[in-house]
Amino acid sequence: MKYAVVRIKGKQYKVKEGEEFLADKLGQDLIPEVLLVADEEKVQIGKPVLSKAKVVLHITTPLQKGEKIHVRTFKAKARIRKHIGSRAVYTLLKVKSISA
């Protein structure tokens, strides 16, 4: 099983070939930094980045809304109640290939 750890916009993701995953909202220019590549027996770790390794990603769905998060605040004896809801926007990515 071949997998890699990539850093996209400051967050790290463990990805495998042919797998789809959600990342934070991205633009068209997508250049992931490869931190680690592991094959069956061979593991290459970057210090901090592997310069020759390459992970090819394809944007499947540009903008996809995540689950809604509800935040409620309450202050006792002051009759203050507040409700805020937000939905994060993600990009669905598919891993085409991993090369070391």
Automatic annotation (TrEMBL):
Q: State the InterPro entries in the record.
A: bL21-like, bL21-like_sf, Ribosomal_bL21
Q: Which Pfam families does the annotation name?
A: Ribosomal_L21p (PF00829)
Which Gene Ontology terms describe the biological processes this protein takes part in?
translation
Tree of life domain: Bacteria
Keywords carried by this UniProt record: Ribonucleoprotein, Ribosomal protein, RNA-binding, rRNA-binding
Gene Ontology CC: cytoplasm; ribonucleoprotein complex; ribosome
User: Subunit info?
Assistant: Part of the 50S ribosomal subunit. Contacts protein L20.
Q: Which family does it belong to?
A: Belongs to the bacterial ribosomal protein bL21 family.
* NCBIfam families, sorted: L21 (TIGR00061)
- Protein's job: This protein binds to 23S rRNA in the presence of protein L20.
Q: What protein is this chain from? A: Large ribosomal subunit protein bL21
Cite the source lineage: Bacteria, Candidatus Woeseibacteriota
